[in-house]
Amino acid sequence: MNFNQMLLQKQSIVNKRLNELLDISGIPEVLHNSIKYSVEAGGKRIRPILTISITEALDGNILDALDFGCAIELIHTYSLIHDDLPAMDNDDFRRGKPTNHKVFGEAIAILAGDALLNFAIEILSQKAINNNNLNYIKAINEIFKASGARGMIAGQTIDITSENRILSLDELYKMHSLKTGAIIEASCTVAAYISGREDRLEEIKQFSQHLGIAFQIVDDILDFVGDEKKLGKTVGKDLKSNKATFVTILGLDEAKMKAQEHTKKAIEIANGLDKTGFLSKLTEYLLVREN
Amino acid sequence: MNFNQMLLQKQSIVNKRLNELLDISGIPEVLHNSIKYSVEAGGKRIRPILTISITEALDGNILDALDFGCAIELIHTYSLIHDDLPAMDNDDFRRGKPTNHKVFGEAIAILAGDALLNFAIEILSQKAINNNNLNYIKAINEIFKASGARGMIAGQTIDITSENRILSLDELYKMHSLKTGAIIEASCTVAAYISGREDRLEEIKQFSQHLGIAFQIVDDILDFVGDEKKLGKTVGKDLKSNKATFVTILGLDEAKMKAQEHTKKAIEIANGLDKTGFLSKLTEYLLVREN
């Protein structure tokens, strides 16, 4: 199998498991539909694929990694639903489809986000009960530290409170390291806990930090030059809203160079982590992606 | 000490611990202020007091129970912030103060709610790591099943999607057993897990279900006849919005009788659970409260 086939296979495994996890009774129909709408809207499933790939490389339990990765994807999905709300970024489209509140209304969109965050902890605490493994609790703690008021939510707070004010490059790094970086880092580090390989934590952190920055710079470049159809969302939005991005601060060429630099550093570490080469190819793919 | 002094003492212990738990660095100032604003707005702290009182009665670890109770109070607070939002119940006042979004804006209010839910998991997973006790994970799982899409969030979904439609008495019971009952039940049942006394689970569930229903009926009665100043929120809101309540369906006298019946049943069980008498007095107090 070549890289693209492996990526598609992993995405399909993640999608299948997400469907299974959401296929439960006892949820009011409109709420259930709203939750499934956003989870099934797709996305690259980068976070769960990072979790399972690194766990595989460390000889950990892949099925457990899959559930941890899926829970992280649910947290990621909740954050997108809430970020898209009129009071926040006020986005009408996401992944080529109307945003959750456009279809289900704001109240249900808020509740669907809340429910996804809740659901992630339900899944993971059940996993920890089934395994009775202290490392799994450590992994859970990592995830929710990353998604909380000192992680992802701090990043989103800085983002929305700094509109109409130009962030410095350092502030921009900090904002993104919180808003998207922290949860990408957790997607990677939980693999070390699941596999009982805390000795690899530092290395994995370094990898994920370079990957996270490169990922965000590429996002900013795509917002500047990307193809609206391939992206599935409005481009040029950052520019119009006068938001600082890596492109507006560094210029397009310098931003591309920075993305390449961080990708290169991430790949060097990935080669040491994963002898199959999948992780480094994934890192390369995230640099050249078109959405 | 009489009951009122004991209640005040327990409330003060809970408030002190909530302050300690929230006194952390690394949260953006406006988000931190918004979180503290709603947590410090007060409330009776019934949920954590239930957790610590029942744990005390079962000879469990009170300090751990305190943190579990405080985490539940943070979940309760997040649910109030989100429920008050314009897209939901659109409330301007809560506990005599402007609601969170009135002070901090909708975006920060949404994020503060998200952060509180996250924070509850951070606290509890850290507790579980410190203790490495499977029962603590079971307690965590109970809490988030209660607050999730098949519990509290299901109740809120039924509530907001049934406005302008009159619920039957059975539907009203179901809605409240989810919206407020599930998390009250969890406040009580976690005490059994913390104390390693799962043999008392069934009894505690019975107690909490009667208490939860009585609590909700009294809420509806207070909305109908209560003193706005003592309640700290607008009264008569249910009537104006044409919402089904225990008073509109049963009438005031029948509603009072039902509240007394459930209180009586809860007290009978409380007497068996807690020989100090505090739990039964707390149950009685919730019937005659004015806010």
CATH level 3 topology of chain A: Farnesyl Diphosphate Synthase
**Largest sheet geometry of chain A:** 2 strands, antiparallel
Assigned CATH class of chain A: Mainly Alpha
Average the pLDDT over all residues of chain A and give the rounded result: 94
Largest interface: A-B, 50 and 50 residues
| Class by alpha and beta content of chain A | mainly alpha
The CATH superfamily label of chain A reads Farnesyl Diphosphate Synthase
* DSSP, total strands of chain A: 2
The radius of gyration of chain A is: 18 Å
Oligomer: homodimer
Number of helical elements of chain A: 15
Percent in strands of chain A: under 5%
Run of helices and strands of chain A: HHHHEEHHHHHHHHHHH
Overall CATH architecture of chain A: Orthogonal Bundle
Share of residues in helices of chain A = over 70%
If you had to describe this structure to a student in words, what would you say it looks like?
The structure is a homodimer of 291-residue chains. Chain A is mainly alpha-helical. The first copy, chain A, has a single domain (3-288), classed as Farnesyl Diphosphate Synthase (Orthogonal Bundle), CATH 1.10.600. Helices cover 75% and strands 1% of the residues of chain A. Chain A has 15 helices and 2 strands. Chain A has helices spanning 3-22, 29-40, 46-57, 62-84, 100-104, 106-131, 134-147, 152-161, 169-194, 201-225, 228-231, 237-240, 246-250, 252-273, 278-288; strands spanning 93-94, 97-98. Chain A has a two-stranded antiparallel sheet. In chain A, a hairpin with a 2-residue loop joins strand 1 and strand 2 (97-98). In chain A, helix 3 (46-57) packs antiparallel against helix 4 (62-84). Chain A is globular and about 50 Å long. The two termini of chain A are 23 Å apart. The mean pLDDT of chain A is 94. Chains A and B meet through helix 2, helix 6, helix 7 and helix 8 of A and helix 2, helix 6, helix 7 and helix 8 of B.
